[in-house]
Amino acid sequence: MDISDKTIDNIAKLAKLFLNEEEKQKAKKDISKILGYIDTMNKLDTSDIEPVSQALLAVNVFREDIVTNGDSRKELLSSAPVKKDGCFIVPKTVQ
Amino acid sequence: MDLTNLAAIELGRWIKKGEVSVREAVAAQLAAIKEKDKIYHCYITVLEEEALVRADEVQEGIRSGKYTSPIAGVPIAVKDNICTRGVRTTCASKILENFVPPYSAAVVEKLWQAGAVLIGKANMDEFAMGSTTETSYFGATKNPWDISRIPGGSSGGAAAAVAAGEAYAAIGSDTGGSVRQPSAHCGVTGIKPTYGVVSRYGLIAYASSLDQIGPIARNVSDCAAVLEVISGNDNRDSTSAPQRQYHYQEAIKNGIKGMKIGIPADYFSDGLDKNVRDSVLFAAQLLREKGAVVEEFKQKTAEYAIPAYYVIACAEASSNLSRYDGVKYGYRAPEKDLGELYKRTRSEGFGEEAKRRIMVGTFVLSSGYYEAYYNKALKVRAVIKKEFENAFSNYDILLGPTAPTTAPKLGESLQDPLKMYLGDIYTVAVNLAGLPAISVPCGLDQNGLPIGMQLIGRPFGESDIIRAAYNFEQAYRFSARYNIQNKKEHIENI
Fold first, then answer.
1. To the nearest 5 percent, what fractions of chain A are helix, strand and coil?
2. Contact present, B264 and B398 (Cβ < 8 Å)
3. Is residue B282 part of a domain?
4. What are the two backbone dihedrals, phi and then psi, of residue B92, each rounded to the nearest 5 degrees?
5. CATH number of the domain where residue B139 is located
6. Interacting residues of B357 by C-beta distance below 8 A, sequence separation 6+
7. Does residue B239 form part of some domain?
8. Using CA atoms, how far apart are residues A1 and A42, in angstroms rounded to an integer?
9. Rounded to an integer, what is the distance from CA B291 to the centroid of its chain?
10. Do the beta carbons of residue B252 and residue B462 sit within 8 Å?
11. Per-residue pLDDT averaged across B65-69, rounded?
12. Cβ proximity of B255 and B292 under 8 Å
């Protein structure tokens, strides 16, 4: 299937990716080709088939809502690119 | 003699008997890495100081009876998408270039409790997305059998390290063939266990309904020993199977007389290299001679496995990789606006293949396309799973090639992503169905490159495939016939 400029712009927006014009054209070409191949799935009749999202039958796994980990603020913040006063810093979001 | 040529549990035995100290083994391993890794580039991080400190601790632990496993004291590599507390874990991506995890993965804890020595973090395709290890931000790994070729992927650094004598065994991850295919290309053995057998706690997620961690080693017994160590229930991974412990080393003791082995006929159709085909069929004949009943059968869904796999894997990846936003850890682009910060960080932090898969995944989940792509793929997955169930009502295990060709040249696959995806044709269906599979070396092609065959088992049927693989290994004796050092000689004899 062919991907339009509008579709690529929408995908990039949803995926939070910035693409320059050259990258956009390459992505259009690559993704169209991949989707064209993916379309071979349509040869298989699946009209009476229930979709499965897990290979082996999964059941819900429950546990008591008890905190088991300790305070790891310092360790977690140690990987943060920008931090201040024990918090993550992001650019200002409200004027 | 060169200590680094020993098999993992052989070294474990020498250490236990006191013939080699753990420090000697670790020092020999580090020396080999120092010499060879500038050629092969199997590692992103080598744990030189940590491994030597650990060596002394393990030596004392073996003496006191704290460490009793067959891999106590053995240097082992871990793929760099598996978290190691205090040790940089990059996923071979710029976006995690400086990420130091605050905790260790369950498999790392288990290796630690078994007395293994973590020697380094192995190179891989970025976020495990690729079949060549060329998408690594840190540069490609080279195949130790021929450095003009790729080692396979995504666990290419791990498989190459085991083949090159830079690790006794390694831990990889397999979402669509990433343990088995590089094992085949590097002439080593790798297992992708049943979904749920090994805890993924601490494995950086790519496609969660497919991801599974597995061992790579120089022979079947080593693989079985390492898998026994890393498997078992863990309540921190909600997909973990309930069994607490598995016993795989027992499996190798028995023969395969009467074992029913099915060969899917369509795995041998167009696109399969002749050398690969001949080697795998020769292997089938050997298994027959050992008493197995081997026969062909028809499987109709092989051509749908790759399309369904890429839809599902990309969809899950687009969701899993949305967490990389430049705020809590990892790379961050300098921006003054939050929206722009997210976009720039992700565009600059992710490589081309990761971005491509995020975009494909975003597309197949987007409004208007979900039904035709994502939901369709889930239905195809159901059909594939059912077809395997039918096959296992007739056969104990299935046999086929691991990859359609031997290792391609470096750079070839980067030109055409679709062509690279097609190289996963024999491995992805196993992940879609959650089954266990092992890749074992079964020959060399006319260029002297290793060929791998794949044995697929029913859910939790690891013992069956390990037993068959061990019997084949003993009959064929790949590592006694061929080794990397004498490559020229092999080509003359083939």
1. 40, 5, 55
2. yes
3. no
4. 55, 35
5. 3.90.1300.10
6. B129, B313, B314, B317, B318
7. yes
8. 13
9. 30
10. no
11. 97
12. no
| Whole-complex ipTM | 0.95
Per-residue confidence band for B492, with pLDDT thresholds at 50, 70 and 90? low
The domains of chain A are located at 5-43
The tally of domains found in chain B comes to 1
CB contact under 8 A, B347 and A17: yes
The residue type found at B1 is M
Domain hosting residue B194, numbered range: 3-257+461-493
Q: Return the residue matching tokens 């008997």.
A: B17
d(CA B429, CA B387): 10
Is pLDDT of B107 > 70? yes
Find where tokens 């959650």 sit.
B434
Cα–Cα distance for residue pair B172/B154, rounded to 1 Å: 9
From B311, B343, B433, residue closest to A55, measured CB to CB: B433
Q: Is B238 in a helix, a strand, or coil? A: coil
**Residue whose token pair is 């749920």:** B196
Average pLDDT over residues A75-92: 92
Min Cα separation B62/chain A (Å): 30
In this predicted model, what pLDDT tens digit does every residue of B2-42 receive, in sequence order? Answer: 899 999 999 999 999 999 999 999 999 999 999 999 999 99
Give the pLDDT confidence score for residue A62 in this predicted structure. Answer: 84
Q: In this model, does residue B494 exceed pLDDT 90?
A: no
Convert the pLDDT of each residue in B429-451 to its tens digit: 999 999 999 999 999 999 999 99
- Is B392 in the A-facing interface, judged by CB distances under 8 Å? no
Inside any domain, residue B100: yes
- Beta carbons of A49 and B383 less than 8 Å apart: yes
Residue B253 counted as domain residue: yes
Task: Give the closest-approach CA distance of B307 to chain A in angstroms.
Answer: 4
Sequence-separated (6 or more) residues with CB below 8 Å from residue B78: B84, B107, B108, B111, B118, B120, B121, B122, B158, B170, B171
DSSP string, B181-201: HHHHHHT-EEEEPPTTSB--T
Q: Tokens 């795998």 identify what position?
A: B280
C-beta atoms of B358 and A93 within 8 A: no
Residues belonging to chain A: 95
